[in-house]
Structures are given as C-alpha cells and as structure tokens.
Amino acid sequence: MSADCAWYLYLLECTGDSIYTGITTDVARRFAEHQSGKGAKYTRSRKPIRVLGQLRFATKSEALKAEIEIKRMSSAQKRSFCAQLPTLDADQQTA
C-alpha cells in the first residue's frame, strides 16, 4: 500500500436492522469480504445487506478517529449521518 492511498469509513446495513461501521482502502472489496463471511465477526452473524454510506479520508489515522466517533452514535444518528453520504452503485454492492 502506498503512502498516498485513501482510506474510507463505511457503514453497512446488516440483518436485524443493525449497522456495522468499519474502515478500509477499498469499500467494494471489503463489502464482498463481509458478504462472503470473511469479514468481521459482527458481519458473520449479522449478514450485510447493503452499503449505507462511505466517506473518504486522506490518512488511516483520520479514518480511525471518524470511526470511533460514528461508533459512539445511536442507530438513528448513524442513519441520519448516512443519509448525507454517497453510496456505492447497486452493481458494486453485490458479491
């Protein structure tokens, strides 16, 4: 990975009306990993349905700080936040 690689904060809608938050350098790849059961433990038991939103950061540090802030939000706050973010195209959301 090069030093100028962008990092993304992403939020996934999962079964059980839950939301998973994570960071990655490639949202489409990471979403596919979550869908295939190779992602986080959380998404193995709560299958991801779609990407709710993503936000680009210049550094991993910035993305991690944002992830912490988002994880402190209630589900309603996360959904409101996601409504303001760009999403992946439908063809990028399927494995």
Automatic annotation (TrEMBL):
<dbReference type="InterPro" id="IPR035901">
    <property type="entry name" value="GIY-YIG_endonuc_sf"/>
</dbReference>
<keyword id="KW-0614">Plasmid</keyword>
<comment type="similarity">
    <text>Belongs to the UPF0213 family.</text>
</comment>
<dbReference type="Pfam" id="PF01541">
    <property type="entry name" value="GIY-YIG"/>
</dbReference>
<dbReference type="InterPro" id="IPR000305">
    <property type="entry name" value="GIY-YIG_endonuc"/>
</dbReference>
<dbReference type="InterPro" id="IPR050190">
    <property type="entry name" value="UPF0213_domain"/>
</dbReference>
<protein>
    <submittedName>
        <fullName>Uncharacterized protein</fullName>
    </submittedName>
</protein>
